[in-house]
Amino acid sequence: EGEGSKKEKKEDEKKEGSKKEKKEEGSKKEKKEIEKKDGEKKEGEGEKKEGEGEKKDEKKEEGEKKDEEKKDGDNTKTKATEIKTVEAKKPEGDAKTFAIDPVDVKWDKGKGEKMIKLTNNTADRQAIKMKCSDNALYRITPVFLFVEPGKSIEVKVERLAETVKEDKAVCMVAKCAATDTDPAPLFKSVPVEQQQKFTIPFTVAA
């Protein structure tokens, strides 16, 4: 009987030991699962943070791009302003480059004719347009013409009546190409600020 009770005790101890082991294994498994879940959560949070970081970087890059575009826009505006400023400068008449003789025309009271000599001392071919303040009293021919580099040409001014008053002729000069054949359209295509203007006063003796 004593031996039997000892055996029963040992068996009970074994059962309790196996139960404890099972409990410990279960608790270990639970710990591992909890740790695994915690690890997954941390990874998820890390991915979220990385995603947020990437979004921030993208926003930063977009901001930098906008700043660069703004700078480029500002530079473009500045360049456009500089170009306009250069074009706005009107070329002044220079006797050394384009000469007119005489610089003023004096008339007697009656009718008559005068010649005006235009000399192109520049290295470029020039187109000429002649205008007058009173086309009923004066006639200029030719109105449109070309003057080659280093050459001179004369235009005729005819006075048609005996009216005594002050008038003037205006000589417009525009640079042109060697291939241009008609001077008239050039004064529509070449901006006014790029043309030279010479005024020739007409005076009449009383």
UniProtKB/TrEMBL annotation:
Signal sequence, renumbered to the chain: none
Keyword check for Cytoplasm: yes
Pfam families in UniProt: Motile_Sperm (PF00635)
Entry keyword Cytoplasm: yes
Region ranges (Disordered): 1-88
Alphabetic keyword roster: Cytoplasm, Cytoskeleton
MSP domain sequence ranges: 86-206
Described purpose of this protein according to its UniProt entry: Central component in molecular interactions underlying sperm crawling. Forms an extensive filament system that extends from sperm villipoda, along the leading edge of the pseudopod.
Record protein name field: Major sperm protein
